[in-house]
User: Which sequence fits this backbone?
């Protein structure tokens, strides 16, 4: 399974908002510059996330976007699904494919058991991680970081 650039950029942008915004609306142009994400691409992603209730748009001179929920309430799974990205590990488990029953071996397929278990595990993992969780982990890693040298400077 591979998360597309949509999911990658959306998570990066929301982490930026949660870390930098703290309830203040942020123009997408600022997020675009800070995270090196094309602005027109961000606009498309935020339109979808707004419809899903993950972000809110604020109009006016101090307009931009804010998180619609607390960072603790926004899971990575919600973000990915809001963009229409499938979390199925293989094509035959995608909802549209299963409904069309295009695979003649679907019911007898032994490997399907593996892919279903993988899908359940991935969904569970992504549903268990929030934006706040990632920010906390990032904070811990910064505290662990140390200088890569032992030089002492005297002035």
Assistant:
């Amino acid at each position: 399974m591979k998360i597309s650039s949509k999911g990658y950029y959306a998570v990066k942008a929301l982490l930026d908002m949660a870390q930098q915004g703290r309830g203040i609306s942020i123009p997408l142009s600022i997020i675009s510059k800070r995270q090196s994400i094309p602005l027109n691409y961000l606009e498309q992603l935020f339109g979808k996330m707004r419809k899903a209730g993950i972000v809110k748009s604020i109009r006016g001179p101090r307009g931009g976007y804010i998180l619609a929920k607390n960072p603790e309430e926004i899971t990575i799974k919600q973000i990915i699904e809001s963009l229409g990205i499938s979390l199925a590990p293989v094509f035959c488990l995608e909802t549209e494919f299963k409904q069309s029953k295009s695979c003649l071996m679907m019911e007898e397929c032994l490997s399907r058991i593996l892919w279903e278990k993988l899908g359940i595990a991935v969904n569970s993992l992504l549903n268990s991680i929030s934006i706040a969780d990632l920010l906390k982990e990032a904070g811990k890693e910064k505290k662990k970081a140390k200088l890569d040298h032992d030089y002492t400077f005297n002035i």
